[in-house]
Structure to design on (203 residues):
């Protein structure tokens, strides 16, 4: 059984009614030069903050960047405005993505079966809207929580305040690919399903 097949079986067996999806490297892979994103942020920061950010990113290549950003937001007033401005420029300039076709089809099936679907992404809203529209699934999601909607991004659970619906957390399943997604789910006590497709098929 494929990974997506296991996901659908898990949702059916455990009766989850609300499914939260990460976007990048889950539903679709954003093919962007992320080193350039780091530099676009760094160029907008005071020198000492830029150096701190670069060192932290180099120490955790490709992983844990959400927590690194959150730490710098809390420590440096200049960081969040620089992050948002640089991210909008970067993601609009370099936008390109590769869909996880089987999972995209599963989203259609979940919506048809009456599941309530959400996106919780560390990317900008414009990026999420464009990618989901191109995938043909934007209309299937009740809500998107994007980078500019929160101060602290995943793994911080702040985004939950925009998603919760006054029902038991046992009704929710978080579907993601990263330590940031898993950390947010754990902080909230929500079940988590990991998508490894793009990690296995990057090369």
């Amino acid at each position: 059984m494929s990974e997506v097949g296991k996901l659908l079986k898990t949702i059916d067996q455990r009766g989850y009614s609300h499914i939260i999806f990460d976007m990048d490297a889950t539903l679709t892979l954003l093919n962007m030069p992320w080193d350039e994103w780091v530099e676009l942020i760094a160029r907008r920061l005071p020198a000492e903050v830029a150096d701190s950010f670069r060192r932290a990113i180099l120490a955790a290549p490709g992983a844990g960047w959400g927590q690194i950003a959150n730490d710098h937001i809390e420590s440096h007033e200049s960081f969040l405005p620089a992050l948002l401005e640089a991210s909008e420029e970067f993601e609009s300039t370099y936008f390109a993505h590769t869909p996880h076709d089987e999972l995209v089809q599963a989203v259609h099936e979940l919506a048809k079966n009456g599941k309530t679907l959400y996106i919780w992404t560390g990317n900008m809203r414009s990026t999420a809207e464009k990618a989901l529209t191109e995938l043909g699934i934007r209309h299937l999601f009740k809500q998107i929580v994007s980078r500019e909607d929160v101060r602290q991004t995943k793994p911080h659970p702040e985004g939950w305040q925009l998603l919760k619906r006054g029902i038991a957390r046992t009704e929710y399943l978080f579907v993601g690919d990263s330590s940031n997604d898993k950390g947010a789910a754990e902080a909230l006590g929500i079940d988590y399903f990991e998508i490894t497709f793009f990690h296995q098929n990057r090369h």
In short: Residues 121 and 191 are 17 Å apart (CA to CA). The chain has a mean pLDDT of 95.
